[in-house]
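_Per-residue structure_
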Amino acid sequence: MYLLGYDIGSSSVKASLVNADSGKTIASDFYPRTEAEIIALRPGWAEQHPQQWWDCLKQATASVLHTSGIDPKEIAAIGISYQMHGLVMLDKDMKPLRPAIIWCDSRGVPYGEKAFADLGEEACLSTLLNSPGNFTATKLAWVKENEPEVFEKIHKIMLPGDYAALRMTGRACTTVSGLSEMMLWDFKANRPAAFLLDYLGFDADILPEIVPTFSNQGEMTAEAAAELGLAPGIPVCYRAGDQPNNALSLNVFNPGEVASTAGTSGVVYGVLGEVNYDPRSRVNTFAHVNHTAASPRLGVLLCINGTGILNSWSKRVIAPDGISYPEMNALAAKAPIGAAGVSVIPFGNGAERVLRNRETGASIHGINFLTHDRSHLLRAEQEGIVFSFMYGMEVMEQMGMTLSKIHAGHANMFLSPLFRNTLAGVSGAVIELYNTDGAVGAAKGAGLGAGIYADNNEAFASLEKIEVIEPVEADRSAYCEAYALWKQRLAAVMA
């Protein structure tokens, strides 16, 4: 018996086939081989054709079936992870009316700011747990004003994962977690956010049916099965946005547990066991995969835009030509903790939510031409990224979270010993590294939704722990001093 998981990203679509009994991945692949096209007709815009996701999903499915050689009838359930906050608009025939407006498109910002001001910060934060911001709802507000001919034809709106499930099952549905990331879930009333729908002029009928995150959400149609090379009747039993799903992939379900990623952007995602929010809206709060009104489980998300993108910039511009990432990490480690007084402010990839949407740009501070070299700059760059994580983690702690253990995939910047040791050193948290990915997590989520696994601990019993990084107490004061200096310099930049 097998489980099939998909991870629908903006760069590619990945499929993973997991043996339900052993929990081991038997085949995995992604398409396209180069990054998927993002349509940017104007600065700040970002769109993709939903058909592109489906075409890539078909290719990835064909590959894992070919590699594994299994009978598709042995697949017991399908799970879907997807890029968050996208807007797919469908007509009455359930066909896309235009390309999807995806997560990194910023045209919804002024609509979110106006709603926040008009409806009141307290009203928005206490019900949505966020400002309306640049999420699915405000992207739709842009369409309503600028493309009224499209808006008038909308029958349903969906997230990217909802659309993929629709293509498989013919059923239009979403989840509470999905509605919360659209910014259309009222946590006080435990229902769709009528006050924001009314303010933006949206009819509630455009929302899909709400289904539990872990449940039979529809079964593979004969038409979809023929396209994908799968068997009719396979149920879709799980769906979640990529960050909640990343947490699930790392077995992060309960209050106080934390997941982190550090790719192009960096994320710290912690689970909170009570309905709460940051009054300054510096982090985002969504319903986690196992959230219920009776037993709240909220995913508090810190996103730092200037993470891996700064590290790759440093490799191109600061490091010696031809150096590898491991060699660059070793060079950076030659400098002492705190980089002998050099600090890097890493916010050079657009406005940062943790800075209340300020765009400060990146900057380097404290250079002495007589004493500092490449190693100091490279160490300060990695420390600056970690310190930006810590800056946001302090907001999460103010919300009542205890950040004593961080689960992360063994990938991207978590491959750097210096990065890992700095994060453990400044936060005091133990870091556990695992071998997993989003598509594997989605497959195991499907196993939970189908009732194959009794609980998350059974589902993730086979999760492979690669390494544990403990904070070195003797070094903690040096990390904390460097962080304090970094915060002073950030305050001066923000002044």
Q: What stands out?
A: The CA atoms of residues 302 and 472 lie 25 Å apart. The chain has a mean pLDDT of 96. The longest strand covers residues 75-82. The two ends are 59 Å apart (CA to CA).
